[in-house]
Amino acid sequence: ETGVTQSPTHLIKTRGQQVTLRCSSQSGHNTVSWYQQALGQGPQFIFQYYREEENGRGNFPPRFSGLQFPNYSSELNVNALELDDSALYLCASSLDPGEDEQYFGPGTRLTVT
Amino acid sequence: KNQVEQSPQSLIILEGKNCTLQCNYTVSPFSNLRWYKQDTGRGPVSLTIMTFSENTKSNGRYTATLDADTKQSSLHITASQLSDSASYICVVRGTGGYNKLIFGAGTRLAVHP
């Protein structure tokens, strides 16, 4: 196991609701990246946080937002949930933004009904 | 457009048999290529990483090859075990910053007794 933890494991929400997913990075890692993985697809990059600042963003709308805390843990917030937001949400931590090696958490399975 | 394509999409083999998974990419310029194993409902775990100058890399029963000229990589699994049942994802990193990781959709491997 990687030492990256995510909560909750599973979540069911209704369309239009808001959700917050949490990630604790591996000890010593100051960079957290979030990915969305639809069923049968590879992960898609949402955004990355480095030292509490957003350090880059993929092709996701503004209703996907995030935070990183002084201890480098992170949150992913999604507002106005849509059915297509149903996916496995992965966070990955790394030593710094330039570090290739990313350590993934087990993911949060979000189902929007 | 930078892309990573994997084949086959899914594969069923009998325990003890060998198999080879393919990854073709168009990412340019190219920094490195990783193969990840992702168990169902879990985060991906890195198996191998290869840079431009490396042709082959082994990790136990897993052997990855890279042909940077043809932009092709393969992952060969020897003497498969039931625990090899998982998705195998090819990830190519271009040069540049945070969003230069391009994920393939993965090959879903099922090993049957």
Write the layout of secondary structure elements.
The complex is a heterodimer of chains A (113) and B (113).
Chain A: E1 5-7, E2 10-13, E3 19-24, E4 31-37, E5 44-50, E6 53-57, E7 64-68, E8 74-78, E9 87-94, E10 103-104, E11 108-112
Parallel strand pairs in A: 2-11
Antiparallel strand pairs in A: 1-3, 3-8, 4-5, 4-9, 5-6, 7-8, 9-10, 9-11
Chain B: E1 4-7, E2 10-14, E3 19-25, E4 30-38, E5 45-51, E6 56-59, E7 62-67, E8 72-77, E9 86-94, E10 101-103, E11 107-112
Parallel strand pairs in B: 2-11
Antiparallel strand pairs in B: 1-3, 3-8, 4-5, 4-9, 6-7, 7-8, 9-10, 9-11
Describe this structure in words.
The complex is a heterodimer of chains A (113) and B (113). Helix content of chain A is 0%, strand content 50%. Chain A has no helices and eleven strands. In chain A, strands 2, 4, 5, 6, 9, 10 and 11 form a seven-stranded mixed β-sheet that branches. Chain A has a four-stranded antiparallel β-sheet with strand order 1-3-8-7, with no helix packed on it. The radius of gyration of chain A is 13 Å and the shape is globular. The mean pLDDT of chain A is 93. Chain B has 113 residues and is mostly beta strands. Chain B contains no helices and eleven strands. In chain B, the strands form two sheets. In chain B, strands 2, 4, 5, 9, 10 and 11 form a six-stranded mixed β-sheet that branches. Chain B has a five-stranded antiparallel β-sheet with strand order 1-3-8-7-6, with no helix packed on it. In chain B, a hairpin with a 2-residue loop joins strand 6 and strand 7. Chain B is globular and about 45 Å long. Chain B starts with a strand and ends with a strand. The interface between A and B is medium-sized, with 26 and 23 residues.
